[in-house]
Amino acid sequence: MSTRARFAPSPTGPLHLGGALSAVANRRRADWLLLRIDDTDAGREVEGACEAIVADLEWLGLGWEEGPVRQSSRIERHREAARGIGIEDTEGAVRFGTLTLLRPDGTPTYHLASVVDDHDFGITHVVRGADHRANTELQQELTRALGFE
């Protein structure tokens, strides 16, 4: 079986050392690599950061088979998934239990977009920093709820 991984930085500034290490680890372990830009929170995006991250990855000699794919280009897919399992609250957000899937403006949150995109791109392995360890159980629960297992 082919190993499919992704490196998914947020365009909130330049590539940092931890991100570079994660990118190298993903590239070394994967037969196929997606460069995904996690840009679902437009308010945090820094102008030019995506281009700078891509340039830094290229400078490091890292390649990828697909991307860069911006999560913001897949909003309709994320909305479709959220509406399949979530309930709209009085403020207009779509929630799954206590977890917000879609903000009141209809934009997806990190957890939803990440799970949907990992599924749709056939990601088999996720290598990331310990700072994301707490996300794993929540994302596994979303994976099951969406019927992706």
Concise description?
The chain is an alpha/beta fold. It contains five helices and six strands; from the N terminus they run βαβαβαβββαα. Helix 4 packs across helix 5 (133-145).
As a percent range, the share of strand residues is 15-25%
Helix content: 25-40%
Do you know the CATH architecture? 3-Layer(aba) Sandwich
Q: Would you count the extended β strands for me?
A: 6
What strand order characterises the main sheet? 1-2-3
CATH superfamily label: HUPs
Largest sheet: 3 strands, parallel
N-to-C order of helices and strands: EHEHEHEEEHH
CATH-assigned fold name: Rossmann fold
Mean pLDDT: 95
Helix tally equals 5
Radius of gyration, whole Å: 15 Å
Total domain count: 1
User: How far do the termini sit from each other?
Assistant: 17 Å
Global structural class: alpha/beta
Query: Shape, please?
Result: globular
**CATH classification, class level:** Alpha Beta
Low-confidence stretches: none
Describe the fold and architecture:
The chain is α/β, with parallel strands linked by helices and 149 residues long. The protein has one domain: HUPs (Rossmann fold), CATH 3.40.50. It contains five helices and six strands. Helix 2 links the parallel strand 2 (32-37) and strand 3 (66-70). Helix 3 crosses helix 4. The mean pLDDT is 95.
